[in-house]
Amino acid sequence: xxxxANINELRxxxxxxxxxxxxxxxxxxxxxxxxxxxxxxxxxxRRADKVIVxxxxxxxxxxxxxxxxxxxxxxxxxIAGLTAHNADALFSPTPQLIYPRGLDAQTFVEVPLLGDLHxxxxxxxxxxxxxxxxxxxxxxxxxxxxxxxxxxxxxxxIIRQMVIDLSLPIEILGVATERAADGLALSSRNGYLTxxxxxxxxxxxxxxxxxxxAITNGNHDYRTLEQQAKVQLTAAGFVPDYVNISxxxxxxxxxxxxxxxVILAAARLGTTRLIDNLEL
Length: 280
Hints:
Helix content: 25-40%
Strand order of the largest sheet: 1-4-3-2-5-6
CATH superfamily of the largest domain: HUPs
Structural class: alpha/beta
Number of strands: 9
Shape: globular
CATH architecture of the largest domain: 3-Layer(aba) Sandwich
Oligomer: single chain
CATH topology of the largest domain: Rossmann fold
Strand content: 15-25%
Distance between the termini: 39 Å
Radius of gyration: 19 Å
């Protein structure tokens, strides 16, 4: 695997692949890779000739009271995992390379409406940071395909809309959430959980499954179902941020029975914020 440290090296590698007529897939990450990330690499390998992965802990998407300084950085293990899964190149820039004038002077990209809901309501500026870095990485890598996990369902929807709005010639692939044997969605933040919290964490997915079953069985009182799920989460030891039954495309709260829906949820165990979703 070719490890690229700067933009000139990245562009030279991409140009070489383009001259050879290769189809390029891209997997952007913040590192601390787990099986969910590596599954994205596997999917990308099946869909393209060359796969490039980025590792960049993006300061623009972290709020003032969030865990940027303590975000786990495991580069040696990440390189070993990517090598084992046959990634072709790794781009691992520094913040100074990505934001040479600093965050306050950086041009930004923002997707309105979609970015203001759900996690966006509780994490102001987060999705501006996500869309800005993804757009910048897309411009640097210029892939044919980019792969994202469905665990971050709102993020995926925002990136899809950004690609449409900015007319970027990139196919966005959403890849199914990888889960532990007990159902907990794999996440870098799971490493923050204590042993006791980790034992409680699968209840989030279980409660979403119960909610999905209720809707499938004909209960369409969505707002009451959401409140009941939050009560269940609280009883299970969580502090819920939200449980929202929403339209899959607009992400607005679902109101009719015919629209495609997704259940979106975020809740805290101690200081760790977990998110999950289930499509209907």
